[in-house]
Amino acid sequence: MTELDALAPSPDGVWAHENVVVRHLHGLEFDAVRTGSTVQVCHGLTSAQIGERLVPIVTAQARHVGLSQREFELVLVGIVRTTVADPVDAWSTYYRNSLDELLSGTADFAPVHDHAENLIVGSVLDMGSCFGFFPLRLAMKGHLVTATDLSAGTMRLLTVVAPHLGITLDTVVCDAANVPVADSSVDTVTALHLLEHVDSETGSRIVREALRIARTRVVVAVPFETETTACHGHVRTFDESSLVELGRSTGSTFETSEHHGGWLVIDKTRARQFT
């Protein structure tokens, strides 16, 4: 597997990486097929249509074609890159559209971001930021924000695009279980739909790391699923009881709730209560 450079030059209307080829053909419906090990995607999407609304569309195709998480990511990148010719313009368009959809509530993930924003206190470090929509949202609202992710390519993309959106934030490439920042260095640490991507032991290490970094609060969100969504890279499922167990393992005050998935909020500034 080669490191993905989402800004690398490519011919207009065609993008290819590893075993995925994406082509833009005007007037064509979205279509994906697998031929041997190769995934070929053709679409006629316009610049107004690339954003978070692509996720359920690509997810449906992923289930139909049997896309792996890596192939899912490559298809999404290829669609963005073949819709707008200039790489930076393409990604700036994708980010603007996605933020508009998330803030207006039209994106599927919007309720998660809305709820998480209401739980934020002060400065924020976000773990597993991926494209960084949530850190961008908070930075737009005046929070001091650090986005972190294991993918160097994704953090580079966020660093390049953020100034084009008029937004300032910090980015760090790191494992969520080993973040190179000082103890108690931010008010709130968030991990939104991250823990379902790692095994139980790694997830516990991530929560311990979040508690080390946070002065005040740790906010964890997970999907409640009966089976893992493989194309999104999920390797385990959560329900209310597993969240309560995770909260108890921290030895800190915590609350769990359900809102478009499960929530675990750990407060470090309140005396411990048994839940």
Can you walk me through this structure?
It is a single chain. This protein is 35% helix and 22% strand. The protein contains 8 helices and 11 strands. A 7-stranded mixed sheet has the order 7-6-5-8-9-11-10, with helices on both faces. It has a 4-stranded mixed sheet with strand order 1-2-4-3, covered by helices on one side. A hairpin with a 3-residue loop joins β10 (253-258) and β11 (262-267). α1 (54-65) crosses α2 (69-83), α2 (69-83) crosses α3 (87-104) and α3 (87-104) packs across α4. The radius of gyration is 19 Å and the shape is globular.
Topology readout:
Blueprint: E1 14-17, E2 20-24, E3 31-35, E4 38-43, H1 54-65, H2 69-83, H3 87-104, H4 110-118, E5 124-127, H5 133-140, E6 145-149, H6 152-161, E7 170-173, E8 186-192, H7 200-213, E9 214-222, H8 240-249, E10 253-258, E11 262-267
Helix pairs in contact: 1-2, 2-3, 3-4
